[in-house]
Amino acid sequence: MNSQDNSIASRMVKWIVKEGRKYGIGTMVVTQRPSEIDPTILSQCGTFFALCLNNASDRSHITSAISDNLDGLTSMLPILRTGECIVLGAAVKLPMRTLVIPPPKDRRPDSQDPIVYDILPQNESITPGGWNILPEEQPNYAEVIEAWRSQSPRISKVKL
């Protein structure tokens, strides 16, 4: 929701964020691109959990939303490790650099990178895939060629 967006949804989010604090309504904005968030919305955020940000535009957007005396802290954002963040704002007395502990593997969202190789055999793996899937014993390359030529993954079986 950038500042040029004047849709009804954008206007309502801005209104809820601005007026909601008066009534005890909190908002949580999660984004990988803070520069795309309207400054009105970002300025209403009381606490920031800033993870690694390499883009200078995104860093300057965060810097402009926090206190003037903390802008040097945002220069650390490009060097943070995976899972490491800087917490600053109303939730902490002093800005702090901390490590976010990920949830256990069985409680994580199903949004990992594609599996390239699993060290477990295919029949024992929780998430089989990638290079450890055994190839077909008698592959039918005619089907692959037909799907490629028709530009559709849905084809009828090709008989040899």
Note the main attributes of this structure.
single chain, alpha+beta, 3 strands, three-stranded antiparallel β-sheet
Structure characterization notes:
This protein has 160 residues and is of the alpha+beta class. The chain is built from four helices and three strands, in the order ααβαββα. It has helices spanning 8-20, 39-43, 56-65, 141-150; strands at residues 47-50, 84-89, 96-99. It has a three-stranded antiparallel sheet with strand order 1-2-3, with no helix packed on it. It is elongated and about 65 Å long. The N and C termini lie far apart (55 Å). The model has no long low-confidence stretch (mean pLDDT 80).
Q: How much of the sequence is in beta strands?
A: 5-15%
- Pattern of helices and strands: HHEHEEH
What general form does the structure show?
elongated
Summed up, the helix count is 4
Helix fraction?
Answer: 10-25%
Number of strands: 3
Biggest pleated sheet: 3 strands, antiparallel
Mean pLDDT over all positions: 80
Poorly predicted regions? none
Query: Largest sheet, order of strands side by side?
Result: 1-2-3
Distance between the termini: 55 Å
What does the radius of gyration come to?
24 Å
The helix-and-strand class reads: alpha+beta
Short description:
The protein is built from four helices and three strands; from the N terminus they run ααβαββα.
